[in-house]
Write a structure and sequence with these properties.
Layout lengths: L2 E4 L13 E4 L3 E8 L12 H18 L7 E8 L2 H6 L1 H12 L5 E6 L10 E8 L4
Helix pairs in contact: 1-3
Length: 133
C-alpha cells in the first residue's frame, strides 16, 4: 500500500473521509478538522474555544502518525466570521501557542460563507512532513 490512514486511538470513526493520510514519503495530509471533540461533539460555540479544539485535533493526528507539531509545514484555515477572528487576535494567539507553541508553518486563511457542520466556526487542514521511520 502506498499510503496509511491515520486515525487517533479512541476517536469516533471518520465516515466518508480520512482524518489523516500518511504517504510513502512520510508526508502527512490532514483532512479538514473542526472544533468538535474526538466523539464528534461540539462542546462550545465560542470561536476561540473551537479554534483551540481544532488545533488540538490537528496535533492529535500528527502525533498518531508518530510526528510532533514541529513537523507541520502548512496549514489552511477556513473561518466563517472575519470580524470575530480579527477582534480576538490576542486570544487567537494565546490558544495557538497553548497547542502549537511557537511553531509557525506556512499558513493561508480564507473567510467562507459556511462550513458543512452548522456549528463549526473554523476548519483547518494541514500538511506535515514526518521524519523517516
Amino acid at each position: 500500500m502506498s499510503h496509511q490512514i491515520i486515525q487517533p486511538v479512541g476517536w469516533a470513526p471518520a465516515k466518508g473521509y480520512a482524518n489523516g493520510v500518511l504517504t510513502r514519503g512520510n508526508v502527512l495530509h490532514i483532512g479538514g478538522q473542526i472544533g468538535w471533540n474526538s466523539q464528534k461533539e461540539f462542546e462550545t460555540d465560542d470561536f476561540v474555544a473551537q479554534l483551540k479544539q481544532t488545533l488540538e485535533n490537528v496535533r492529535a493526528i500528527v502525533e498518531a502518525a508518530g510526528g510532533q507539531v514541529e513537523d507541520i509545514v502548512r496549514m489552511t484555515w477556513f473561518v466563517t466570521d472575519k470580524q470575530d477572528y480579527l477582534s480576538r487576535q490576542r486570544e487567537v494567539g494565546g490558544a495557538y501557542q497553548q497547542v502549537l507553541g511557537k511553531h509557525f508553518p506556512a499558513l493561508s486563511m480564507l473567510v467562507v460563507a459556511d462550513l458543512i457542520e452548522d456549528r463549526a466556526k473554523i476548519e483547518i487542514e494541514a500538511t506535515a512532513e514526518l521524519a523517516p521511520r
